[in-house]
Each structure stands twice: as C-alpha cells, then as structure tokens.
Design a protein that fits this description.
This protein has about 80 residues and is an all-alpha fold. It contains four helices and no strands. The N and C termini lie far apart (about 35 Å). The relative contact order is 0.17.
Length: about 80
C-alpha cells in the first residue's frame, strides 16, 4: 500500500473561464427558482448533470469543463480569500 500523498495539479489558469461559466449557470439556476448551492453540490458530488437546469443551456455549459477543473478553480479562489 502506497502511503504517499498523490499530487494533483493543473498547469493552465482557467479562472476567467470558470468564473464566466459559473456565473452563467448560477444565474440560470436562480432564474428557475433553484437553490444554486444545493444543485451545484449535488452535481459535484454525483457527477449527474441533471442537477443543473437545461434552462438557457446551462447544463450544456457546465458540461463543457471537467468537474475536477471547475472544483480546482473554485477551491483555489475560495482559499485565496481566506
């Protein structure tokens, strides 16, 4: 059993793309009356895109980027503000 921590790294900065994508998806979820936090948590945990509304193409938009890449940018942005 390997006890070393696996390093996880992305080499390109996608912050602007993620910010734009997430803003679009959040707005679509809000407009449809969903709690965007609950829906996004469901999506990120399960990988099931049906947690994201298809309204205004939001489901297609969020599927354009890998969930791991989205989470990496979101967590990085959050931690930088601590």
């Amino acid at each position: 059993m390997n006890s070393e921590t696996t390093r996880f790294s992305f080499t390109t900065d996608k912050s602007d793309n993620v910010r734009e994508l997430m803003t679009y998806v959040l707005n679509a979820l809000k407009e449809k009356g969903y709690n965007p936090i609950n829906q996004l948590v469901g999506y990120f945990i399960s990988g099931d895109p049906t947690y994201i509304t298809s309204y205004k193409g939001a489901r297609g938009v969020i599927k354009r980027m890998d969930r791991d890449e989205l989470l990496e940018v979101i967590i990085s942005e959050y931690c930088s503000k601590l």
